[in-house]
Amino acid sequence: MQQHQYDVIIVGAGGAGMRAALESSKRTRTAVLTKLYPTRSHTGAAQGGMCAALANVEEDNWEWHTFDTVKGGDFLVDQDAAEVMCREAVDAVLDLEKMGLPFNRTAEGKIDQRFFGGHTRNHGEAVVRRSCFAADRTGHMILQTLYQQCIKQNVEFFNEYYVLDLLMTDGKASGVVAYELATGELHVFSAKSVIFASGGFGKVFRTTSNAHTLTGDGMGIVWRKGLPLEDMEFFQFHPTGLAGLGVLLSEAARGEGGILRNKDNERFMERYAPTVKDLAPRDMVARAMANEVREGRGCGPDGAYVMLDLTHLEPAHIDAKLPDITEFARTYLGVEPYTEQIPVFPTAHYAMGGIPTNIKGEALANNEDVIPGLYAAGEVACVSVHGANRLGTNSLLDINVFGRRAGIAAAEYAATASFEELPANPEAYVVELVEGLRNSTGQERIAAIRADLQATMDLNAQVYRTEGSLKQALVDIAALKERFKNVAVQDKGKRFNTDLLEAVELGFLLDLAEVLVVSALERKESRGGHFREDYDKRDDVNFMRHTMAYREVDADGNETIRLDYKPVVQTRYKPMERKY
Amino acid sequence: MDVKVKILRYNPEVVDEAEWKTYSVTLQPTDRVLDALHKVKWEQDGTLTFRRSCAHGVCGSDAMRINGRNRLACKTLIKDLNPEKEITVEPIKGLPVLKDLVVDMEPFFDAYRSVMPFLVTSGHEPTRERIQSQADRDRFDDTTKCILCAACTTSCPVFWSDGQYFGPQAIVGAHRFIFDSRDEGTEQRLEILNDKEGVWRCRTTFNCTDACPRGIEVTKAIQEVKRALIFRRV
Which of B30, B38, B119, B178 to mutate to test the interface with A (most CBs of A within 10 A)? Predict the structure, then answer.
């Protein structure tokens, strides 16, 4: 076992982690631990853009952006946080440009902007061009640009180090324990501040736009420490995944004029959102698509999907603005988007919930108290700027604004705090976890348990949910957790043991799926990405509140999930019916 | 359909030499080679080791040599590989193999980091964005697409025989800034690439261009950098 000491440890090297690292590393001694190489992070898969009211192409302001964010999130957004994000959005985009990000340009050479779902002028009057973009590879450019700046600034990375435990001393964060993939060796990092920026957990679902590696490790680690997770029932299903595969086709396709059609070739979104049509927020579009399919208007031999139509767009326009996603359609479905419609269906995309934080990125131990030294930013966190449904582009914005804020706050805290003494045998939990799995004599295949988990989540906890379906999911998850006790790890070696790590990741997925379902079961209303067929209206009287889930272990070692609630911060905007 | 996948296996904890192993897997023609590898790992042999993440060709984790050509496993469909015959999968060449299809990426990233792959500017920062015409932006568009997968560098015969050579990717990484109208680091970057292990080692075999899963015209980019060096202007 090796020991290290840094003022600030950042877990994850996607957009949020590297944005935090750029701030923290210029103030204090910082290390970034990532289970991948930084440029492999899933920020790179984001496509359409990053919204900011630059007003480069038409009138706009951050207050309109705030309103859209709050309304898009079905009023579960903490409005103080949304204000911060939308106000700082302008500088966040300009900062990236100054770092070298190659944005598309207007005729005057300014950053170009385009339409995106749910982003409107003057509180819903009409759609507005607010998304700053680099073709349909904005996330790729952000990830590359931030990595390039990290190279320039000599940020220290520990690549392919899996953080598997958070160390706490007297209620404060004091370090992490990491597993080095190349050698199987454990490393104990002592730190004054720890920032989780480790992304989401989309792999609880089968149909997902998420990478194989998005297994919710950061949320899972915090969860096992008895710290809360907020609003885990809210998961976004992106409308346009490639049918059957889930590979993401950016909302920019509709921002550039693409249209969704059913088997009658009808532009069905006109019925669901008469004003903004195909550019309604994602939860509404995803439900509309699922509804078309359920009511027998789906396309294909089984009527299982709808079509994204780009055929009326000029091929040159498609090549300039949507080159990657059209290539995905060609590569994976053999469809030529110039002349053919593309089969699409909703795909699990984004966790609105996560580790609760305040607007400085400080993680919360309950509704009020911060955990000294612990921070979270990006998809792993819940500030909450996305409420019940995130607007498109606001995730790239979130990672930049709150990644920066968490990096500054963590470094400032480290400047005055001292290193806490680590608990005795700090690596004990990880040794038990890893060696327990490695030495297991069970017969259950990791992939089989994971596939069954994903199947029940897709069937029972997706776009449409009921009490019955969620209860079924809970029964299934409980059975899978039993099977997981007999999981087989075939690779017994130390070197690059990805078999072992897949088992660890599956453990996190099982935990988080259960939190999602338990939280969803108790939210007896429909709001944003959480739609209950048995309670199909939003219920502000009983449920205008965040869910706070806690893991509790009784004296006999039995685990239960306790739910509590946290009020929503409302400043300017009173809840209203959500029409588009 | 039943497909035979022949994989070059190597685990220095267990054996001294790499050896080929063949696996039978049932696949759809539209499945990816990555699906085949996953089927082997998940259903037959959990010790098979490879890197992967996004599974749709944007993260750059899973470059490997498939039927003798560098490709991304997640972007190569079975039906495009003549699956009646055995499909061969081996690690990319020229970087030390650590286990199965996993190679040591550090020399590759070292080369990238050495060409100053970041925007260099001087003077006061503007309050708003730097102005750049779309034409100037388009000038370096091709090389911004790079995902650092190493398919180009590890397809280059010069790199195979001389590991000191920067390799195509590092030149692509430099090109992206050399031809960016906002950048002021061109002179320094060109000097780095003028090194004896720099652009002049390129023998224009076009392997890199063929290998690039992002369709970047790598050889063209290298030629543009050579021309910039000769004429000292971009």
Answer: B119
